[in-house]
Specification:
By secondary structure, the chain is α/β, with parallel strands linked by helices. It is about 30% helix and about 25% strand. The chain is built from seven helices and 16 strands. Helix 1 packs parallel to helix 3.
């Protein structure tokens, strides 16, 4: 499958972000792609939660989701919408990925399991769990022409157990959309993404936010496509937004799994002896 990867600098206006996404679907199709991958928080990047609250609505009312579904249907292509901030029925928020089919239907959703609660040496402090509820389900779905797609989001990449489950499901591709900070990105982004591809013997597609955002944050960029051997096929750099293209060759997965059958060789870990 020929895919497109969108690197964004999303802002505080969902309508403006929706316009970027709508155009990206059109440009992806014009470039011959059959599927588009977008970053985490494609519809809204705003660390001012009081201001953001006015734009965080239930899934059925979200205008960004509606725009992307319309574009997917018009262009008849798959879209892995990295994530949107969605209001749950209980009033709290979910950081939710969407898999949208070529007819515009929502094929799957995934709520980010691991919350980004950290204090960095740079002074940056993030408490995602103060507003968002962690997901409880591992999600994978079949995508025609692509194989089985596993869904993850950003900070999830640091937790191998999630990817062991996706590997056990024989996922062919894993989407890891992100809005990585610059310090953590420079230290760990490429390392972690390549590790997840190798341990799952799968392609990783990591569409990312990049640059200086309206709310004052900076993100690392470097949207990636990585093959099951850990080879970087696409790196979009850390300077600007844009659209990149890459081919997903499912024969490469079979080749790697024949040479290094780590999924088949995996064994349960023995229990630790008590002292």
């Amino acid at each position: 499958m020929h895919i497109a990867v969108l690197q964004m600098t999303s802002g505080i206006d969902p309508a403006a972000n929706a316009a970027v996404l709508f155009d990206a679907v059109k440009q992806a199709r014009a470039g011959g792609a059959q599927m588009l991958f977008t970053p985490e928080m494609s519809g809204l990047v705003d660390r001012d939660r009081e201001r953001a609250a006015a734009h965080i609505v239930p899934q059925g009312s979200d205008p960004v989701l509606a725009a992307v579904r319309t574009a997917a249907s018009m262009e008849h292509m798959w879209v892995a919408l990295g994530s949107l901030a969605i209001q749950r029925p209980d009033g709290r928020w979910a950081n939710r990925s969407f898999l949208i089919a070529p007819d515009g239907d929502i094929e799957a959703t995934y709520d980010k399991i691991h919350m980004f609660d950290v204090e960095l040496a740079t002074g940056e402090t993030w408490r995602e769990s103060a507003a968002y509820v962690p997901g409880e389900q591992v999600v994978s779905r079949a995508v025609s022409g692509l194989g089985t797609l596993g869904l993850a989001i950003c900070y999830d990449v640091r937790f191998p157990a999630l990817f062991q489950v996706l590997g056990s499901r024989n996922c062919d591709v894993i989407a890891i959309p992100a809005a990585f900070t610059r310090p953590t990105g420079a230290a760990h982004w490429h390392l972690l993404q390549r590790a997840r591809a190798v341990e799952a013997s799968a392609f990783v597609v990591a569409a990312a936010q990049v640059g200086q955002h309206e709310d004052g944050r900076e993100t690392y960029g470097h949207s990636l496509v990585i093959d099951p051997w850990g080879e970087v096929l696409l790196d979009m750099g850390g300077e600007r937004a844009g659209l990149g293209f890459c081919d997903i060759d499912l024969d490469r997965i079979a080749e790697v799994r024949r040479q290094l059958p780590s999924l088949a060789n995996r064994r349960p870990m023995p229990k630790a002896n008590s002292a």
